[in-house]
Amino acid sequence: MRPAIVESPFKTAEIVLANGETASIEEAKNIEYAKACCLWALDQCYSPYASHLFFTQFLDDSIPEQRKLGIEAGITWGSAADVRIFFVDRGFTEGMVYGYKASKTLPQRIKVVKLGGDWDLGWITGKPLWSDVLGRLDLRT
User: Fold this and answer.
1) What span, in angstroms and rounded, lies between the C-alpha atoms of 13 and 118?
2) What is the pTM of this model?
3) How many structural domains comprise the chain?
4) Domain span at residue 129?
């Protein structure tokens, strides 16, 4: 198994869908999604680590100082992984942007995955996926 960081939405947020409509992504559903992402990663012979599932067990994500501490700790652990997998069915959130920026400072591969099915909110429709994400969020810098 190869170590992999799982990046997926966590907290409740509003996202703009590819058709211009907005959708609310709720924390409880995002947690279910993150678990499904980890199962997908295991099935692909990755050893997944989802810091947003781990640190929120004892840090309060609604307290800015604790959220920042959890993100920083997750980024520290993230440097140990060969790959960072961004799961984008439910959008690309602020926390995922932190993960992306951290990955740019590491010799780390980036993979973009959509699980599809009921998870897919239609946030992103283009191919290749990563180009669409970069374009929508202006993550080039």
Assistant:
1) 18
2) 0.86
3) 1
4) 2-137
